[in-house]
Amino acid sequence: MNCPKCKNVQLLDGTLEGNLPVKQCHECKGTWIPSVEYEAWQSKQSQVTPVDPELLWQTLDVNFVQSPYDMKAALCPECSRYLSRAKVNLKTAFYLERCLNCSGIWCDKGEWDVLSKLGLHTTIEQLFSSEWQTRVRERQQVDKEREATIEKLGPDLASQIFELAEALAKHPNGDFGVAYLMRQVGVSK
Q: CB-based contacts of 13: which residues, under 8 Å, 6+ apart?
């Protein structure tokens, strides 16, 4: 079985934490996790509870250097189908890959360690769900909007706006405050 990224490099037997048998590439340091091995390992884990993406974004301060192979498309080393990609949205995002045919998982160098640190390694299938990916895209949109607000208003005023928005969202009559601000901003222009 050859590495899906290096093509002509033979994958070697190895293990990940908790004695999970895998195939590893000595060249790119990537790891192939056969579905049979992953499912057997997963069934022995004490915590196989799906992680809420909103909780995850509160703990995404993870140092990670993206593999140069991460953006490279790959074929499954077991059945030669294209590997599907799921974005793991950190400060330095990366793509986890999985075969939709045989359910094997490919982790580029360091990705398994990040998944493990975030508690996602026991429930990898959730990363490939449409619900998870939708929530990732929604969160990205919120982050882009925050960045644009900071860019347009400056960090000090943007910080005040974010604080006010949070206070208004929690207040039972917050919509009145929003309407007031809209009228005031509209009048001054």
A: 21, 22, 23, 24
